[in-house]
Specification:
seven-stranded parallel beta sheet; binds uridine-5'-diphosphate-xylopyranose; 2 domains; Rossmann fold; alpha/beta; single chain
Length: 479
């Protein structure tokens, strides 16, 4: 039988924290000779500035197709409305996804899809792949630690640890997440666990989509084997074929140093570069709350006043949709900040974190930001906003000891105190040593012979094998 051309279709949630690692994965697999098509929404494709389906964003290696998300063209799709986008996608895009999955060869003159890589938080994509008998692999763009917390929700409910009792002590440890019994508190579970009813629809949906991972042919993490070794032992007991190929951005750069900068979700304001270059080494705090966090004006003011009274200069990426509600808070912050710091709309985060003037990262603990902070060797001050960020920040402070966790508080005194602890004294030195070790470990993992490189080769091998299996199945059905 002629060798099947492996063709992978990857369909991430239309959110930057999912799209960014998927675009890097698409480049990496393309470099390994796998044909890749990335499917996104019409809105995201326009936002990524791709000029045509075969050359998205100046990339030359994979195809980018898009389908409607079911919302009106003029819907703002702002950070605070991302759940509306996901709900519309789940309701309106199943049919369009199936069309691309089974007939992309007609749509964009490519070989038939032989393997689907589905977003771990988009259950219908796995269901459609199963119905069409196309093997699927799950890509969980957040980390193993939050995956395992979500996977353990049935155990937490069975043990009576969910839902939380009324007026409970949120610092009490939970005992039903294997491997996390000694440090995971109620407040460190994903925010969806703070519901009052174990049958809450969102809690059940996240739990069941995570449980469905056991039906996939494999599970991809954008993480490093040595970072989560003990945890991955537990995960492997339920999902035996797990590929930890992160940090995917670093893995891509190790394979092709010419690769371009990450997607420009907002217009990058380069005015910060000269200001940052003029600052002394490790004297600046970089502040960013990712692409989905929305803050009340009162919270923004608490962070601003805390940063100013810490006495350290800061560079703060303030997206146009960071403020929950109307108003241009960035303009006000810019006017007040002047010589104290630099307020810009959007930066190249990996470049800023790698800058010698940056000494600490005040972050919301999104998984991509957490990995980028580790790669840059920068201690983190964590203010998690929702979902997996609660677990990520606990690992940063209690397991890896590379930062401080400000979870569930937002006052200027705590902000100032934690900035000082991360920037000066023995606590800062210890965190810097620890994150420096993890940064070196990340670098080694993507080098020739490193664990992420080995897992990548295994993933490529398995995609080829699955593609042969899928093609043989099709031939068998056609005779
Ligand atoms: C979302 C969820 O919120 C997060 O919890 C989950 O782990 C991934 O999906 P997001 O909130 O956007 O992600 O945070 P994060 O995962 O950190 O991704 C943000 C990305 O935006 C990072 O890759 C970061 O480098 C980039 N970024 C952010 C910029 O490039 N410039 C900026 O100014 C700010």
């Amino acid at each position: 039988m002629e060798k099947a051309t492996p063709h992978v279709l990857i369909f991430p949630l239309p959110l930057l924290g999912h799209i960014s690692p998927v675009l890097q994965l698409a480049e990496v697999l393309s470099l390994r000779g796998i044909r890749v098509t990335v499917l996104t929404t019409d809105h995201v494709k326009r936002r990524l500035g791709s000029d045509d389906e075969n050359r998205p964003m100046g990339r030359k290696r994979f195809s980018l197709l898009s389908i409607p998300d079911g919302l009106p063209a003029d819907h703002p799709r702002s950070a605070g409305q991302f759940l509306e986008v996901l709900r519309s996608l789940m309701v309106n895009s199943r049919h369009a996804y199936r069309d691309v999955l089974v007939s992309s060869c007609k749509i964009s003159k490519t070989p038939p899809v032989t393997c689907a890589i589905v977003d771990g938080l988009m259950p219908f994509a796995a269901e459609v792949a199963e119905e069409e008998e196309i093997p699927f692999i799950v890509f969980r763009t957040s980390g193993p630690c939050s995956f395992w917390a979500y996977f353990s929700v049935p155990k937490l409910i069975e043990a009576g640890e969910l839902p939380f009792p009324e007026e409970c002590d949120m610092d009490e440890l939970v005992r039903s997440v294997p491997g996390m019994e000694t440090f995971l508190r109620r407040r460190d579970l994903p925010t969806i666990c703070r519901v009052r009813d174990a049958n809450d629809a969102h809690l059940q949906a996240l739990s069941s989509s995570t449980q469905r991972t056991t039906r996939a042919r494999g599970l991809i993490f954008n993480s490093i084997e040595q970072l989560d070794a003990a945890l991955l032992t537990h995960i492997n007991s339920c999902c035996p074929r797990t590929y930890t190929i992160g940090p995917i951005g670093e893995l891509l750069r190790s394979l092709d140093c010419s690769v371009g900068s990450p997607p420009e979700w907002w217009r990058e304001d380069r005015s910060y570069a000269a200001w940052l270059d003029a600052q002394p080494s490790k004297s600046v705090v970089y502040v960013s709350f990712g692409s989905l966090t929305v803050l009340r004006r009162s919270q923004i003011l608490e962070f601003w006043h805390g940063l100013v009274s810490s006495g350290y200069r800061f560079i703060w990426a303030v997206r146009p949709d960071l403020l929950d509600g109307a108003g241009d808070v960035a303009a006000e912050l810019k006017a007040w900040t002047e010589e104290k710091g630099c307020v810009v709309e959007w930066v190249n985060q990996t470049a800023v974190l790698a800058h010698p003037s940056v000494g600490a990262f005040l972050t919301h603990s999104g998984w991509n930001s957490t990995l980028e902070g580790i790669c840059a060797g920068v201690p983190m001050i964590c203010w998690p906003f929702f979902f997996d960020q609660m677990v990520n920040s606990r690992f940063v402070s209690e397991v890896w000891r590379i930062g401080l966790d400000m979870k569930d508080t937002c006052d200027r005194g705590t902000v100032a105190k934690m900035v000082k602890q991360a920037m000066e004294g023995e606590s800062a030195e210890e965190m810097r040593r620890n994150v420096g070790r993890l940064s070196e470990m990340a670098r080694q993992s993507v080098d020739e012979g490193g664990s992420s490189r080995v897992h990548l080769e295994q993933l490529v091998h398995d995609i080829r094998a699955l593609s042969l299996e899928a093609s043989a199945l099709k031939v068998g059905k056609s005779v």
